[in-house]
Specification:
The protein has two helices and eight strands; from the N terminus they run H-E-E-H-E-E-E-E-E-E. The protein is an alpha+beta fold and 144 residues long. The protein folds into two domains: 30 residues; 105 residues, Ferric Hydroxamate Uptake Protein, Chain A, domain 1, CATH 2.170.130.30. Strand 6 and strand 7 form a beta hairpin. The chain starts with a helix and ends in a 7-residue tail after the last strand.
Length: 144
């Protein structure tokens, strides 16, 4: 072995490490997209393939689904109607141009792909929830 070899080896190693570091900085893999904390998403499926989405809606101090949904729908300038039932809560009767009873279809909602058996005014929205309202036949959920 020649006397200059360790110095040359160290220089080549240092250059290689430096170039590897630079290349690694430019090829970092981005973290997967996740829903930001303190938000939820709302989807309105009025049938016939028409689905309107409202992603990343900030949660307010009032996390009542009915109140949050009414605000989002009205801010979007969509018609919205409901009836209050003293013992049950608020029943959504119209979103957009779809009204309960038309074609034996009614507004029903799901939270994170599960049918919600309580009134929207009784559901407390959690961060990350995906709420989907569907205009479908009344007995649809019973067959699932």
């Amino acid at each position: 072995m020649k006397k200059g070899s360790p110095l040359l080896f160290s220089l080549v190693l240092a250059v290689g490490l430096f170039l590897g570091f630079i290349w690694g900085q430019s090829t970092q893999i981005a973290a997967p997209a996740v829903m930001p904390a303190g938000v939820f998403s709302l989807m309105i499926d009025s049938g016939g393939g028409d689905i309107v989405t409202y992603p990343d809606i900030p949660l307010a101090t009032d996390r009542n689904l009915f109140n949050l949904m009414r605000k989002v729908i009205q801010e979007d300038d969509q018609p919205f109607a409901y009836e209050e039932y003293r013992d049950l809560g608020m029943l959504v009767t119209k979103i957009g141009d779809k009204k309960n009873g038309e074609g034996n279809r009614y507004w029903q909602y799901w939270v994170n792909n599960r049918f919600a058996p309580i009134a929207a005014s009784s559901y407390v929205v959690e961060a990350g929830d995906i709420i989907e309202w569907k205009f479908i036949p009344q007995k649809f959920y019973e067959s699932r």
